[in-house]
Protein backbone atom coordinates (compact mmCIF):
# COMPACT_ATOMS: atom_id res chain seq x y z
CA UNK A 1 0.00 0.00 0.00
CA UNK A 2 1.34 3.44 -0.89
CA UNK A 3 1.71 6.26 1.63
CA UNK A 4 -1.12 8.12 -0.10
CA UNK A 5 -3.43 5.10 0.17
CA UNK A 6 -2.58 4.63 3.83
CA UNK A 7 -3.35 8.29 4.54
CA UNK A 8 -6.66 8.05 2.72
CA UNK A 9 -7.76 4.98 4.69
CA UNK A 10 -6.65 6.24 8.12
CA UNK A 11 -9.65 7.40 10.20
CA UNK A 12 -9.88 11.16 10.71
CA UNK A 13 -9.56 11.42 14.49
CA UNK A 14 -10.51 15.11 14.35
CA UNK A 15 -14.11 14.13 13.58
CA UNK A 16 -16.60 13.15 16.24
CA UNK A 17 -18.28 9.75 16.12
CA UNK A 18 -21.55 11.20 14.79
CA UNK A 19 -19.65 13.11 12.09
CA UNK A 20 -17.81 9.95 11.10
CA UNK A 21 -21.06 7.99 10.99
CA UNK A 22 -22.50 10.61 8.66
CA UNK A 23 -19.49 11.01 6.36
CA UNK A 24 -18.37 7.37 6.25
CA UNK A 25 -21.83 6.11 5.26
CA UNK A 26 -22.55 8.78 2.66
CA UNK A 27 -21.86 6.37 -0.18
CA UNK A 28 -24.17 3.77 1.43
CA UNK A 29 -26.90 6.41 1.66
CA UNK A 30 -26.49 7.44 -1.98
CA UNK A 31 -26.51 3.80 -3.07
CA UNK A 32 -29.71 3.13 -1.12
CA UNK A 33 -31.43 6.08 -2.78
CA UNK A 34 -30.52 4.72 -6.22
CA UNK A 35 -32.48 1.51 -5.56
CA UNK A 36 -35.51 1.22 -7.86
CA UNK A 37 -37.94 0.93 -4.94
CA UNK A 38 -36.55 4.00 -3.20
CA UNK A 39 -36.56 5.96 -6.45
CA UNK A 40 -40.21 5.10 -7.11
CA UNK A 41 -41.16 6.03 -3.54
CA UNK A 42 -39.36 9.38 -3.75
CA UNK A 43 -40.78 10.10 -7.21
CA UNK A 44 -44.34 9.41 -6.12
CA UNK A 45 -44.80 6.57 -8.62
CA UNK A 46 -44.92 3.69 -6.14
CA UNK A 47 -48.36 2.05 -5.88
CA UNK A 48 -50.02 2.28 -2.49
CA UNK A 49 -49.50 -1.49 -2.07
CA UNK A 50 -45.76 -0.91 -2.21
CA UNK A 51 -45.90 1.77 0.45
CA UNK A 52 -48.01 -0.52 2.62
CA UNK A 53 -45.46 -3.33 2.19
CA UNK A 54 -42.72 -0.94 3.33
CA UNK A 55 -44.72 0.01 6.43
CA UNK A 56 -45.12 -3.70 7.23
CA UNK A 57 -41.36 -4.26 7.07
CA UNK A 58 -40.77 -1.19 9.20
CA UNK A 59 -43.01 -2.68 11.86
CA UNK A 60 -40.76 -5.72 12.26
CA UNK A 61 -37.57 -3.66 12.18
CA UNK A 62 -38.71 -1.09 14.72
CA UNK A 63 -40.20 -3.71 17.00
CA UNK A 64 -36.73 -5.23 17.22
CA UNK A 65 -35.05 -1.84 17.67
CA UNK A 66 -37.36 -0.75 20.43
CA UNK A 67 -37.17 -4.07 22.25
CA UNK A 68 -33.39 -3.72 22.37
CA UNK A 69 -33.66 -0.04 23.30
CA UNK A 70 -35.78 -0.98 26.29
CA UNK A 71 -33.35 -3.70 27.37
CA UNK A 72 -30.41 -1.24 27.18
CA UNK A 73 -32.21 1.76 28.64
CA UNK A 74 -29.92 1.95 31.68
CA UNK A 75 -26.73 0.82 29.95
CA UNK A 76 -24.00 3.52 29.85
CA UNK A 77 -23.61 3.10 26.08
CA UNK A 78 -26.92 1.84 24.73
CA UNK A 79 -28.86 4.04 27.11
CA UNK A 80 -27.25 7.16 25.66
CA UNK A 81 -29.79 7.07 22.82
CA UNK A 82 -32.76 5.92 24.87
CA UNK A 83 -35.38 8.44 23.80
CA UNK A 84 -38.86 6.90 24.20
CA UNK A 85 -40.31 9.88 22.36
CA UNK A 86 -38.58 8.58 19.23
CA UNK A 87 -40.28 5.19 19.31
CA UNK A 88 -42.19 4.33 16.15
CA UNK A 89 -44.05 1.11 16.93
CA UNK A 90 -47.24 2.76 18.26
CA UNK A 91 -47.38 4.99 15.17
CA UNK A 92 -46.76 2.01 12.89
CA UNK A 93 -49.57 0.09 14.57
CA UNK A 94 -51.97 2.93 13.78
CA UNK A 95 -50.66 3.22 10.22
CA UNK A 96 -51.08 -0.50 9.60
CA UNK A 97 -54.61 -0.51 11.01
CA UNK A 98 -55.41 2.23 8.48
CA UNK A 99 -53.50 0.67 5.56
CA UNK A 100 -54.33 -3.01 6.11
CA UNK A 101 -57.50 -3.01 8.20
CA UNK A 102 -58.27 -4.00 11.79
CA UNK A 103 -56.96 -7.55 11.38
CA UNK A 104 -53.57 -6.39 10.16
CA UNK A 105 -51.62 -8.44 12.73
CA UNK A 106 -52.98 -11.64 11.18
CA UNK A 107 -52.07 -10.66 7.62
CA UNK A 108 -48.47 -9.38 7.77
CA UNK A 109 -45.21 -11.27 7.52
CA UNK A 110 -41.58 -10.14 7.30
CA UNK A 111 -39.59 -10.63 4.14
CA UNK A 112 -36.53 -12.90 4.51
CA UNK A 113 -34.25 -9.85 4.39
CA UNK A 114 -36.34 -8.11 7.04
CA UNK A 115 -36.25 -11.15 9.30
CA UNK A 116 -32.45 -11.25 9.01
CA UNK A 117 -32.27 -7.49 9.64
CA UNK A 118 -34.38 -7.77 12.80
CA UNK A 119 -32.28 -10.69 14.02
CA UNK A 120 -29.13 -8.63 13.53
CA UNK A 121 -30.63 -5.78 15.55
CA UNK A 122 -31.61 -8.14 18.37
CA UNK A 123 -28.07 -9.53 18.35
CA UNK A 124 -26.80 -6.08 19.34
CA UNK A 125 -28.51 -6.40 22.72
CA UNK A 126 -25.18 -8.01 23.68
CA UNK A 127 -23.14 -5.28 21.97
CA UNK A 128 -24.50 -1.82 22.78
CA UNK A 129 -22.07 -0.13 20.39
CA UNK A 130 -23.61 -2.06 17.52
CA UNK A 131 -27.04 -1.04 18.72
CA UNK A 132 -25.94 2.61 18.48
CA UNK A 133 -25.04 2.02 14.83
CA UNK A 134 -28.47 0.65 13.95
CA UNK A 135 -30.33 3.19 16.09
CA UNK A 136 -28.46 6.13 14.56
CA UNK A 137 -28.90 4.84 11.01
CA UNK A 138 -32.66 4.35 11.31
CA UNK A 139 -33.85 7.26 13.43
CA UNK A 140 -31.57 9.97 12.09
CA UNK A 141 -32.70 8.93 8.62
CA UNK A 142 -36.35 9.22 9.68
CA UNK A 143 -35.72 12.68 11.09
CA UNK A 144 -33.93 13.84 7.93
CA UNK A 145 -34.83 12.29 4.57
CA UNK A 146 -37.88 10.68 6.13
CA UNK A 147 -39.49 14.11 6.40
CA UNK A 148 -39.24 14.52 2.64
CA UNK A 149 -40.76 11.06 2.19
CA UNK A 150 -43.65 12.11 4.42
CA UNK A 151 -44.48 15.03 2.12
CA UNK A 152 -44.25 12.85 -1.00
CA UNK A 153 -46.47 10.18 0.54
CA UNK A 154 -49.07 12.74 1.60
CA UNK A 155 -49.26 14.09 -1.92
CA UNK A 156 -49.10 10.71 -3.67
CA UNK A 157 -51.75 8.88 -1.67
CA UNK A 158 -53.81 11.78 -0.40
CA UNK A 159 -53.23 11.11 3.30
CA UNK A 160 -54.35 14.59 4.25
CA UNK A 161 -55.46 13.91 7.81
CA UNK A 162 -52.24 12.18 8.87
CA UNK A 163 -53.59 8.63 8.78
CA UNK A 164 -51.10 6.34 7.08
CA UNK A 165 -48.06 8.55 7.68
CA UNK A 166 -47.85 8.69 11.46
CA UNK A 167 -44.55 6.80 11.24
CA UNK A 168 -42.95 10.01 9.93
CA UNK A 169 -44.58 12.34 12.48
CA UNK A 170 -42.48 13.25 15.54
CA UNK A 171 -44.74 15.64 17.39
CA UNK A 172 -43.16 14.90 20.76
CA UNK A 173 -39.71 16.11 19.72
CA UNK A 174 -40.40 19.79 19.11
CA UNK A 175 -37.74 21.23 16.80
CA UNK A 176 -36.29 18.36 14.76
CA UNK A 177 -32.98 20.15 14.02
CA UNK A 178 -32.54 20.87 17.73
CA UNK A 179 -33.32 17.27 18.67
CA UNK A 180 -30.90 15.90 16.06
CA UNK A 181 -28.20 18.15 17.49
CA UNK A 182 -28.81 16.86 21.02
CA UNK A 183 -28.91 13.26 19.76
CA UNK A 184 -25.54 13.63 18.03
CA UNK A 185 -24.13 15.26 21.16
CA UNK A 186 -25.23 12.25 23.22
CA UNK A 187 -23.45 9.90 20.78
CA UNK A 188 -20.33 12.05 20.75
CA UNK A 189 -20.19 12.15 24.57
CA UNK A 190 -19.66 8.38 24.73
CA UNK A 191 -16.20 7.43 25.96
CA UNK A 192 -15.29 4.94 23.23
CA UNK A 193 -11.83 4.12 21.98
CA UNK A 194 -10.86 4.22 18.33
CA UNK A 195 -11.29 0.48 17.81
CA UNK A 196 -14.84 0.53 19.15
CA UNK A 197 -15.76 3.61 17.13
CA UNK A 198 -14.50 1.88 13.99
CA UNK A 199 -16.57 -1.23 14.81
CA UNK A 200 -19.64 0.97 15.18
CA UNK A 201 -19.03 2.59 11.81
CA UNK A 202 -18.64 -0.84 10.20
CA UNK A 203 -21.93 -1.93 11.77
CA UNK A 204 -23.60 1.14 10.28
CA UNK A 205 -22.46 -0.12 6.86
CA UNK A 206 -24.06 -3.46 7.75
CA UNK A 207 -27.31 -1.68 8.63
CA UNK A 208 -27.37 0.00 5.24
CA UNK A 209 -26.75 -3.33 3.50
CA UNK A 210 -29.69 -4.93 5.29
CA UNK A 211 -31.91 -1.99 4.36
CA UNK A 212 -30.84 -2.19 0.72
CA UNK A 213 -31.51 -5.93 0.61
CA UNK A 214 -34.98 -5.30 2.00
CA UNK A 215 -35.71 -2.68 -0.66
CA UNK A 216 -34.43 -5.03 -3.35
CA UNK A 217 -37.00 -7.57 -2.20
CA UNK A 218 -39.68 -4.88 -2.32
CA UNK A 219 -38.77 -3.89 -5.87
CA UNK A 220 -41.50 -6.16 -7.26
CA UNK A 221 -43.94 -3.38 -6.38
CA UNK A 222 -42.21 -0.94 -8.74
CA UNK A 223 -44.22 -0.42 -11.94
CA UNK A 224 -42.53 -1.57 -15.14
CA UNK A 225 -41.09 1.35 -17.05
From TrEMBL:
GO molecular function: heme binding; heme oxygenase (decyclizing) activity; metal ion binding
Zinc among keywords: no
InterPro entries assigned to the protein according to its UniProt record, in alphabetical order: Haem_Oase (IPR002051), Haem_Oase-like (IPR016053), Haem_Oase-like_multi-hlx (IPR016084)
Keywords in alphabetical order: Heme, Iron, Metal-binding
Protein's UniProt keywords contain Oxidoreductase: no
Biological processes, Gene Ontology terms: heme catabolic process; heme oxidation; response to oxidative stress
Bias type Basic and acidic residues, positions: 19-32
Residues involved in heme b binding: 22, 29, 136, 184
Highest rank taxon of the organism: Bacteria
Coiled-coil regions, chain positions: none
Comp. bias (Polar residues): 1-17
Chain spans, region Disordered: 1-34
Protein name: Heme oxygenase
Organism: Thermobifida cellulosilytica TB100
Amino acid sequence: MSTAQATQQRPDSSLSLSERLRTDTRQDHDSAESNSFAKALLAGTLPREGYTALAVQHYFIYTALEEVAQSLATHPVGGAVYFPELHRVPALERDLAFLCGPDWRDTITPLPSTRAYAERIRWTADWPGGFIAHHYTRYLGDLSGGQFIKRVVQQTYGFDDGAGIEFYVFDQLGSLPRFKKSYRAAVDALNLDEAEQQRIIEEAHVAYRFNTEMMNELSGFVPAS
